[in-house]
């Protein structure tokens, strides 16, 4: 995105040059993006309001106390370890699956993203029940890496799928070694996706609660929970949350600084897929994939299965209906996935197609909420609903809004990763052939961005299905979702009953994962270029006829 | 093949939309016109058993919203006069005292209050006591003998328990113990105690009492400060054969030997007060109290003519600190301030 924006290019149609000087934005698009961003930032407004209400004289000492430094140190250590491990694991897995002749690729492609489908509180619990050695910094690093690497894997795999493997061959023919050729041709093409994924991991770490609580690793979020739960010390909790916001700003800013220097090769269609032959490397590669999937998916799933086979442990009370709970979870999560994706589209589109300072700032602001715990987002929505729109309070709508706000960054990053790789001359050509901008968007850009849109819907859906803390606070009275039912039994030590709801959560969250892997499966379309050209041509011809 | 997937995808999306629409219609979360909305901070299974019996007996429907009691109290304070709740049912008295202090609770019928000992009710008569628990130590029987156990909660701050003690300071059950210590020995002593306990607990600071109990039972930590019923619940869950722990009560009238009262109140803003009074009356009726003693709640019913679960020692055989009255345990604000000073909260 960023770098190439202001540069003039011979490819661009003259008619649109003024459209894209980087400072002029289409008004309706800008308006939409601004409205969405403001709504998404409501939790930050809430925190500032709380802080100023308590008085900065109260807030400053709460921020500058020893506890904050302990938490900061914990958070930084964890952030560095988990992000580095996730990046290495995710890039290796994505490259093996998308760019080599690794056996069982379809299988790996489907299962490697599954950790996203398993709620953090389930992963943390299963590891702890397996061995008590898994706690503290080591335990938290292990569990979070295994839970979060798919956030890097997904955008990187999507980017690899669309990169041009002929570049690698050119590099090889020019005398570069294998590794060097890889580093020089593939890495630059996936850099934006890699940094975007790492950004998501860092922000998700800042907001994580369930796993840390179980693994007894103290971070800002666990502390914020304690403060909110114990007599609702809003000032102290808001103070710590504001530190989280500052950390998120730093993380987002650092990522911005790093991606700015990357010139993305937009405007180049994906070349044919020529897979790297692993040769003898196939054995260690298979071992790596097996270990990854075994630890990330096998361990939690087998623990769940163990509990499922235990006899029911409820006495005297009928359990919460499983189907009803599943219905509510499906409905809320699906609506949130659609709302978040639709809301993120204008922001992502503006950032990619009209790069400039304002669009970049809008996009980055959208990532900030990812660093805020679900509880803070839920409390802020309760705060605004009670004061301004009481009918929304405790309504299903508010829960869907909360999910959409919480997982907005996931939608944004998926859409951006996909839009940034679209050759923009397709859009321009469609325009020059007489399509209106909206028609060109609908017939060219959106179909070509389908993998990103699908990834966005799937990611938000997955995340909402496995969300717990905001759900507990916002769920309409009398409604039980799978997560709240799981929690009710888990806190009751009825693990056998609780495991049924957890199992259904995992099953439901797996469905979009499978769809996602089908959608992204390059074997469905004989070659990437062919598919893009086909949909491009189809879009143009339909658009050309009034 | 490709077409088949597209069709499946469209059917799935269509199905979800239909399900969404159907569920939207059914899910406003509104209770029926005369139904009650209950904010529940008690254990969900206990409450559900009580609600089911009440609905069966009276035909009045009750919609339950469950959560942490302090969080529910905070919700009610935010909602003010528009609160959808009719009743709040909590595990501990401080949350109710906090609401009563804000004039958010209505007076309870005198006949309901009279069903249980007056010491277990709101001093001002605006909530009723329903059940009781006592604080206790759980210890691992492989690691420790009863003779090695402390007789006072104050001993837990001594260096001999370093690395051996588990606590859950985030639980509302922890606060009454702090209040009791602060009232007996002064707040400075309570703060020193908290800091000692925090140091001894080290990495064994747990999110809840259930975790303490199971960690002590599995030998991860030697002793833990809990309420008695968590141990009985774990035993009911995993079976007596797998228990490697036991309960230990402090010396009679020790500051750490606290009787906690779970209670219920009616919101001043409720528009269904008549039915809400019926629900409170049911909670303290013989039928309601028997549900508490006969299910796996392992709490003590407090109505004098209903016996506790036979697995429990009789309430009369316990000797909690008699000074820990409802009024003394108050709204928990002192305990919270101390927790924060000790950087546990």
Topology:
The complex is a heterodimer of chains A (546) and B (345).
Chain A (H helix, E strand, L loop, with lengths): L26 H14 L1 H13 L1 H8 L2 H34 L5 H7 L8 H11 L5 H27 L2 H9 L4 H30 L2 H6 L4 H10 L4 H27 L21 H27 L13 H32 L3 H11 L6 H15 L7 H11 L1 H12 L4 H9 L4 H12 L1 H16 L3 H6 L7 H9 L4 H26 L7 H17 L2
Helix pairs in contact in A: 1-14, 1-15, 2-3, 2-12, 2-16, 3-12, 4-7, 4-9, 5-24, 6-7, 6-13, 7-9, 7-18, 8-9, 9-12, 9-18, 11-12, 13-24, 14-15, 14-17, 14-18, 14-21, 14-24, 16-17, 18-21, 19-20, 20-25, 21-24, 23-24
Chain B lengths: L1 H25 L9 E5 L3 H15 L3 E5 L2 H11 L7 E4 L2 H9 L3 E2 L3 H5 L13 E13 L24 E2 L7 H12 L1 H15 L7 H9 L5 E5 H11 L6 E4 L10 E9 L5 H11 L2 H9 L5 E2 L24 H4 L3 H9 L4
Parallel strand pairs in B: 1-2, 1-3, 6-7
Antiparallel strand pairs in B: 3-9, 4-9, 5-7, 5-8, 5-9, 5-10
Helix pairs in contact in B: 3-4, 6-7, 6-13
Explain what you see.
The complex is a heterodimer of chains A (546) and B (345). Chain A has helices at 27-40, 42-54, 56-63, 66-99, 105-111, 120-130, 136-162, 165-173, 178-207, 210-215, 220-229, 234-260, 282-308, 322-353, 357-367, 374-388, 396-406, 408-419, 424-432, 437-448, 450-465, 469-474, 482-490, 495-520, 528-544. Chain A is mostly helical and 546 residues long. Chain A has one domain (43-266, 281-544): Orthogonal Bundle (MetI-like fold), CATH 1.10.3720. In chain A, helix 20 packs antiparallel against helix 25. In chain A, 56% of the residues are buried. Chain B has helices spanning 2-26, 44-58, 69-79, 93-101, 110-114, 174-185, 187-201, 209-217, 228-238, 273-283, 286-294, 326-329, 333-341; strands at residues 36-40, 62-66, 87-90, 105-106, 128-140, 165-166, 223-227, 245-248, 259-267, 300-301. Chain B folds into 2 domains: 36-132 and 260-313, D-Maltodextrin-Binding Protein, domain 2, CATH 3.40.190.10; 133-258 and 334-341, 3-Layer(aba) Sandwich (D-Maltodextrin-Binding Protein, domain 2). Chain B is α/β, with parallel strands linked by helices and 345 residues long. In chain B, helix 6 (174-185) packs across helix 7 and helix 6 crosses helix 13 (333-341). Chain B is 42% helix and 15% strand. Chain B is built from 13 helices and 10 strands. Chain B starts with a helix and ends with a helix.
């Amino acid at each position: 995105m960023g770098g190439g924006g202001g540069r003039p290019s011979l490819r661009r149609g003259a008619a649109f040059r003024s459209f894209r000087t980087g400072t002029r934005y289409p008004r309706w698009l800008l308006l939409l993006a601004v409205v969405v961003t403001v709504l998404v930032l409501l939790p930050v407004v809430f925190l500032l309001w709380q802080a100023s209400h308590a008085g900065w004289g109260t807030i400053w000492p709460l921020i500058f106390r020893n506890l904050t430094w302990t938490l900061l140190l914990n958070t930084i250590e964890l952030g560095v370890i988990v992000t580095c491990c996730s990046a290495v694991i995710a890039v290796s897995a994505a490259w093996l699956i998308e760019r080599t002749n690794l056996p069982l690729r379809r299988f790996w492609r489907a299962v490697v993203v599954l950790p996203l489908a398993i709620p953090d509180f389930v992963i943390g619990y299963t590891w702890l029940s397996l061995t008590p050695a898994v706690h503290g910094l080591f335990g938290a690093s292990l569990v979070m890496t295994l839970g979060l690497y798919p956030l890097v894997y997904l955008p990187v795999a999507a980017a690899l799928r669309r990169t041009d493997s002929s570049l690698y061959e050119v590099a090889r023919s020019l005398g570069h070694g294998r590794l060097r050729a890889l580093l020089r041709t593939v890495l630059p093409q996936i850099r934006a996706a890699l940094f975007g994924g790492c950004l998501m991991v860092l922000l998700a770490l800042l907001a994580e609660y369930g796993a840390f609580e179980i693994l007894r690793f103290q971070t800002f979020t666990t502390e914020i929970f304690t403060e909110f739960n114990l007599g609702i010390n809003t000032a102290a909790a808001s103070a710590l949350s504001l530190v989280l916001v500052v950390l998120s700003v730093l993380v987002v800013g650092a990522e911005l600084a790093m991606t700015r220097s990357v010139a993305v090769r937009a405007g180049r269609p994906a070349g044919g897929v020529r897979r790297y032959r692993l040769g003898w490397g196939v054995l260690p590669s298979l071992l790596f994939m097996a270990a990854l999937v075994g630890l990330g998916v096998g361990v939690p799933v087998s623990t769940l299965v163990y509990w499922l086979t235990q006899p029911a442990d409820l006495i005297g009370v009928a359990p919460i209906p499983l189907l009803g709970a599943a219905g509510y979870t499906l409905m809320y999560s699906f609506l949130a996935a659609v709302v978040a994706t639709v809301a993120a589209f204008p922001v992502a589109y503006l950032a990619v197609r009209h790069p400039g300072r304002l669009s970049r700032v809008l996009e980055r602001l959208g990532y900030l909420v990812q660093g805020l715990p679900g509880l803070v987002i839920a409390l802020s929505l309760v705060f605004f609903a009670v004061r301004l729109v009481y009918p929304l309070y405790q309504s299903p709508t508010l829960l869907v809004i909360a999910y959409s706000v919480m997982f907005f960054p996931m939608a944004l990053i998926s859409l951006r990763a996909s839009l940034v790789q679209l050759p923009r001359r397709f859009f321009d050509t469609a325009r020059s052939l007489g399509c209106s901008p909206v028609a060109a968007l609908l017939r060219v850009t959106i179909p070509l961005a389908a993998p990103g849109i699908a990834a966005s819907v799937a990611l938000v859906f997955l995340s909402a299905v496995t969300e717990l803390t905001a759900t507990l606070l916002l769920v309409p009275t009398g409604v039980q979702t799978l997560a709240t039912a799981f929690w009710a039994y888990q806190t009751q030590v009825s693990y056998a009953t609780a495991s049924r709801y957890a199992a259904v959560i995992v099953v439901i969250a797996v469905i979009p994962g499978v769809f996602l892997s089908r959608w992204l499966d390059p074997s469905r379309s004989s070659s990437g270029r062919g598919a893009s050209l086909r949909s491009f041509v189809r879009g143009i011809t339909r658009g050309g006829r009034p | 093949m490709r077409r088949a997937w597209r069709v499946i995808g469209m059917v799935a999306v269509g199905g979800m939309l239909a399900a969404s629409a159907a569920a939207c219609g059914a899910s406003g979360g509104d209770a029926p016109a005369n139904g009650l909305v209950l904010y529940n901070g008690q254990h969900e299974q206990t409450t559900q058993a009580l609600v089911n019996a009440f609905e069966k007996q009276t035909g009045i429907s009750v919609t339950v919203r469950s959560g942490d009691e302090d969080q529910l109290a905070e919700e009610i304070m935010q909602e003010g006069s528009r609160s959808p709740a009719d009743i709040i049912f909590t595990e501990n008295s401080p949350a109710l005292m906090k609401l009563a202090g804000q004039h958010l609770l209505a007076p309870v019928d005198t006949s309901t209050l009279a069903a249980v000992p007056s010491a277990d009710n709101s001093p001002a008569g605006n909530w009723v006591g329903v059940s009781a628990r006592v604080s206790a130590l759980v210890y691992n029987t492989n690691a420790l003998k009863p003779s090695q156990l402390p007789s006072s909660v104050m001993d837990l701050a001594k260096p001999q328990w370093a690395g051996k003690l588990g606590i859950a300071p985030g639980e509302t059950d922890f606060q009454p113990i702090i209040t009791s210590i602060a009232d007996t020995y002064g707040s400075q002593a309570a703060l020193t105690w908290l800091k000692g306990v925090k140091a001894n607990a080290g990495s064994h600071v747990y999110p809840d009492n259930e975790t303490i109990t199971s960690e002590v039972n599995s030998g991860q930590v030697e002793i833990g400060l809990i309420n008695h019923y968590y141990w009985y619940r774990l035993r009911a869950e995993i079976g007596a054969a797998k228990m490697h722990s036991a309960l230990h009560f402090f010396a009679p009238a020790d500051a750490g030997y606290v009787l906690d009262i779970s209670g219920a109140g009616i919101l001043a803003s409720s528009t269904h007060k008549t039915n809400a009074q019926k629900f409170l009356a049911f909670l303290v009726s013989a039928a309601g109290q028997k549900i508490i003693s006969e299910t796996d709640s392992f709490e003590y019913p407090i109505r004098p003519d209903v016996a506790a679960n036979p697995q429990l020692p009789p309430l009369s055989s316990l000797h909690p600190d008699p000074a820990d009255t409802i009024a003394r345990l108050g709204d928990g604000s002192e305990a919270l301030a101390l927790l924060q000073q000790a950087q546990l909260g």
